[in-house]
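This entry is listed below:
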Amino acid sequence: MSYIEKSLTPDENVDSIFSIHWFSYVFPILFSFIILGIPSLLKLIFTEYGLTSKRVITKTGMISRNTAEMKLNKVENVEIHQGILGRVLGYGNIHVTGTGSSKVVISNVSGPMDVKKKIDSLLLS
């Protein structure tokens, strides 16, 4: 069971789980033959991004755990950040900005426009 599923409140449902784009794995795999690439690869493997009926959630870490969560009713802005390679290969970063200075970043996600649309659709409902 993933962290996102474990952290649900009784009246909350998982709407979407987002995946990291395959291209993000290329360099850590190539460099995993060198000791420096293994931590990067492990970080990617143990990263979770999700959207529930109430929150946007990111979780990283294998042994230690770092999470960032934002309630949907606190979201003010959803932005897509894509470079040229991201546009060509279909990945990018989603920046969810909330009230005050809070921010949740979903990095290297596949289909960033679809992710933004899912977040926006939950914000409008």
User: Anything to note?
Assistant: The CA atoms of residues 81 and 93 lie 5 Å apart. Residues 12-124 form a domain with the PH-domain like fold (CATH 2.30.29.30). Residues 112-124 form the longest helix (13 residues). The first strand starts at residue 14 and ends at 18.
